[in-house]
Structures are given as C-alpha cells and as structure tokens.
Amino acid sequence: MEILGLHHIAIICSNYDTSKQFYTEILGFKIEQEIYRSERDSYKLDLSLNGNYLIELFSFPNPPTRPSRPESTGLRHIAFAVANIQESVDYLSSKNIICEDIRIDETTGKRFTFFNDPDDLPIEIYEA
C-alpha cells in the first residue's frame, strides 16, 4: 500500500449551524458541497482550505459526546500550520476564542498552541 496523503478529517458536531459558522467564518474554510440526507436527518458539509479538501462536517441527531480531557484513547487533536502564531492567537481572541499559552516544541523550536472548536475538539495551530 502506498499512502499518498491525508484525504480528509471527519467531524461530527452537536450544533450544525454553530460549527458551520466556526469552520467557515472564523477558520476560513470554503464550502465545497453541502448535502442534507433526509434518511439520516443529517447534514454533510465538505470543506476545503487553499484548494485542498480537508474536512467533512457531519450533523446527526443527538450524537454522544466523546471525551477529550483527560487525555483519552483515539484521535487527540487536529493541527493546522500558520505563518505567525501570535497574529493567529490575536485573531482568535478577537473572536472570543480562548487559546492556551503559546509553547515551544522542544524538538523543532517552533511555537504552537491549542484552542477548541464549539464541541471542545482540541485544535492545534503550529507556526510553520
């Protein structure tokens, strides 16, 4: 098997309109396709960033919550590269999104921090 790259990240949200607004209006993802699947009472929103298809955002009626703290088995977080960590933190703060303190990766010397999406999914931004 030859893996060519990451195809997409699937996220199930508890409030479709809130998460759609967060990922498009705050994080800047572009809507490629939005489908309502009546048999599932579910939306599927395909999102891209810089022309790359990255996220499938799903809504389902009454999805169970998934623990992310304390650290639990499974997907830990998603991470996005940014050009300037401080500018990114300042932007998120202007949108009332709380970021953790900026830290330094001991291996690379790069700066990074975390914040949460509307469902408390941890998102990392990492200075490229």
Automatic annotation (TrEMBL):
Coiled-coil regions, chain positions: none
Keyword presence, Transcription: no
Family annotation (SUPFAM superfamilies): Glyoxalase/Bleomycin resistance protein/Dihydroxybiphenyl dioxygenase
Top-level taxon of the source organism: Bacteria
Annotated CDD domains: VOC_Bs_YwkD_like
Keywords: Metal-binding
Domain VOC span(s) in chain numbering: 5-128
Gene3D superfamilies per the UniProt record, alphabetical: 2,3-Dihydroxybiphenyl 1,2-Dioxygenase, domain 1
Name this protein carries in UniProt: VOC family protein
